[in-house]
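Tutorial, part two.
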Amino acid sequence: MAMCERVVPAPAGLVSVTPTLPMSDKIARLESSRAERRMHARPPLARRLNLGALHTEFTELTVRFEADQGALWCMFNHTERPCFTPRLLDQIRSLQTRIEQGLAGSTDPAGMPLRSVIWTSAVPGIWNLGGDLALFTRLIRAGAEAELRRYAYTCVDAVYHNLIKGNLPFLTIAMVHGDALGGGFETVLSCDVVIAERGAKFGLPEVLFNLFPGMGAYSLLCRRLDGARAHKLMLSGRIYGAEELEEMGLVDLVVEPGEGPDAVRDYLERNRRRHDTLCALSRVRQHCQPVSYDELIAVTGLWVETALRLDDADLRRMEHLVRAQQRRYERTRTEQTRTEPALPISAVG
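Running the prediction step on this input gives:
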């Protein structure tokens, strides 16, 4: 991608950070009460985090820090499948936890080394295709409710923490250059700013296999649109272009293909002086149009119950979609390797 060629690592300040919770602790937390799930106990020992060195710590994400704009670029590498696999989700949550703990208590944007987190993808034409359908079908066929619920709760954690950012004064930006479907679209909706390249596609196709998007779509669409339009959009199963969503107010800026990274940097530069105001307005929206963790958990609980009732025909449709997505992903990866042999994006650091 052109973006990777232009991103230059820069030295960054050190901030205090506490290591993320291990998976076993997360499982115990998810199986406790809702109140306990929202508590994040800190280990007693802290270590230092160099924002400019984060790229050495992740395999499912390519993470780059541009210190001049305080911008943390986070790209989905999609090493297995072009969706939110458990490994990708774990690393997203790890990154979110480290940022929140490392900058805990910061309220003044002027003193923050981090001013924005930009989510994008390393795979041309694919931003994120949403939930791990291959995992869904396996768990549903096995009747593995606890595992399915655990996956769903982790998705909710990722969306919610992207939404509230630990009450820290920085912006989240979705830079979308390809398809953002299902949970991918939900993640886009949880960002403060959405910048999309022309040709990017968005949609909630879950209705095609008798399900609904259960990790925040309804709540997030209602805060940007209204209940009636949210309901219609979710039931349509339609794929929408970036321009159409810009007219609806769900995309903030549409740019030409390949111009997304520069458009993000230009946005950050143009809004440098009013960054404090934009961060405050993000918090105002959460006060005036709140999306609570309990609300998201309740909805995803209904999603789990509905998913477990899918019949064999629904699951076969889901499996057919998985195969089609995987074929597309493999073709894209093959073409990417052939055209960019000197710069494997997942290895950039």
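The chain has one domain: 2-31+46-260+270-343. In part three we will examine how such features are distributed along the chain.
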